[in-house]
Amino acid sequence: MEFELTLQVAVLLFGVAMVAGFIDSIAGGGGLLTIPALMWAGLPPAVALGTNKLQACGGSFFASLYFVRKGLVDLKTVKLALFCAFIGAALGTVLVQLVDTKILELVLPFLILAIGCYFLFSKKVSEEDRHQVLTPTAFAFTAALGVGLYDGFFGPGTGSFFALAFVTLAGFGLAKATAHAKVLNFSTNIASLIFFALGGKVIWLLGLVMLAGQAIGATLGSRLVVTKGTKIIKPLVVTMSLAMSVKLLASQYQLF
């Protein structure tokens, strides 16, 4: 589709992407800002989702890069999980075109709210690593594949689902779980972007402008994850879980 990118729109969406990148690198949920902003700019829903995946790739890449450099993520230990997350997202992107998503739309707000409550009240959420429930291989073929499938199929709250899986199943501390969640989220973003691009659903210039904003915001946010840890991650995860739940419920019942 044709889209005229004015300077005013570019500056506004750059700023929105920067804020979203900051939030995404810590707690996820940045799409609550970027997708409505893209639709406000005049993009159809499918093109807004495709362009959003492009800019989200920037945020997840730069956050992942920072976490790897700081030693929170060892790519060798999660390469199978990265592959499974990628395959899951690719399958989900295909599946969403064949299956009715209505049931998931009804259940999802309550699942995301439950995640927020878990992070708020569970004593297992801390900086310390705990007992590992699944081996890395089992984790890759269950949690990584499953959440990847969900991201390609629907998407909201993917970072929170990954973080929850790393805390409960891999036994990671919160900062380490957040870092690994972002690396896997980058893999799922790439998979979905490929399929959106093949379908011609990406406005490349606009997506690249927002990608630059995402890169700045994600770098700043990932630094706070390293320096502040649970003090900033926990309240922001709870807040974004509540915000996503309210947004999804409001969309269902057309409250606003």
Automatic annotation (TrEMBL):
Where does this chain mainly localize? Answer: membrane
Bilayer topology annotation: Multi-pass membrane protein
What subcellular locations does the record give? Cell membrane
Which Pfam families does the protein's record reference? TauE
Transmembrane parts of this sequence = 12-40, 46-68, 80-97, 103-121, 159-178, 190-212
Q: Which InterPro entries match?
A: TM_pro_TauE-like, TSUP
Which keywords does this chain's UniProt record carry? Answer: Cell membrane, Membrane, Transmembrane, Transmembrane helix, Transport
The residue stretches assigned to a coiled coil in this entry are none
The Swiss-Prot or TrEMBL record describes its family as follows: Belongs to the 4-toluene sulfonate uptake permease (TSUP) (TC 2.A.102) family.
**PANTHER family found in the cross-reference section:** MEMBRANE TRANSPORTER PROTEIN YFCA-RELATED, TRANSMEMBRANE PROTEIN YFCA
- What this protein is called in its record is Probable membrane transporter protein
Q: Specify the species.
A: Shewanella cutis
